[in-house]
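PROTEIN–LIGAND DATA SHEET

This sheet pairs a single protein chain with one bound small molecule, zinc ion, given as SMILES. Inputs appear in the order they were entered. The predicted three-dimensional arrangement of chain and ligand is reported afterwards as a token string under its own label.
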Amino acid sequence: MPLKPIFPHVHVLPLGAVNVFLIEDGDQITVIDTGYKDSEKPILTAVQSLGKQPTDITNIVLTHCHPDHAGSVAALKDATNARTWMHRIDAEVVRGNTPMVRSQPAPGLLNQILYRLVIKPVGPYVPAAVIDCEVNDGDVLPIAGGLKAIYTPGHSMGHLAFLLQRDGGLLFVGDACSNMLGLAYSIVYDDLAEGRRSLAKLAQVETSAICFGHGKALSGAGVGRFRQKWQA
Ligand SMILES: [Zn+2]
Ligand SMILES: [Zn+2]
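PREDICTION REPORTED AS:
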């Protein structure tokens, strides 16, 4: 799948139904989420297409522990020696210290169907990886001029969104919600009520664009629709 620019110095790499993001910061690259297991090759190929080497990936930031986001962090860290960042709760899952919770489908028949087709066949497991840095709500990571963490539990209990603070803001919402067939809940949540509160928190964030773990990025009027849909 081709790499597509979505924001100044930010590219999306769609791998099947899940998005991986690359942020260019001078010579360095930050990867946000790593796709399913065995995604390290397409990610490294995409990095090469930007004229960069694997070792130019200096940071890997994970929104949460699920197999479609953290599936290749172990292999990608091995190939790059990048620093890895995550919330403590989900980091413990990726480290192999806590079992992954089997999330429940969000309301609606479509979510029930997608749960059986997409979620259930994939085991609640990722290859164990070293997570170097535990990230808390409000932390600003020293990446690309400042990448601010926003704790957004619900989809998983250690879920983080991130705000790239330059150029008017680019908000990475991970799986707090999705934009596959329009803005909607993600297919599953560990705690939907928490997920709703997290979405209301994200609706307050000033940003010029929003990107999702699943689905197309939004900008302009789309940001207004996002804020209206999820406000408390
Ligand atoms: Zn997820
Ligand atoms: Zn996902």
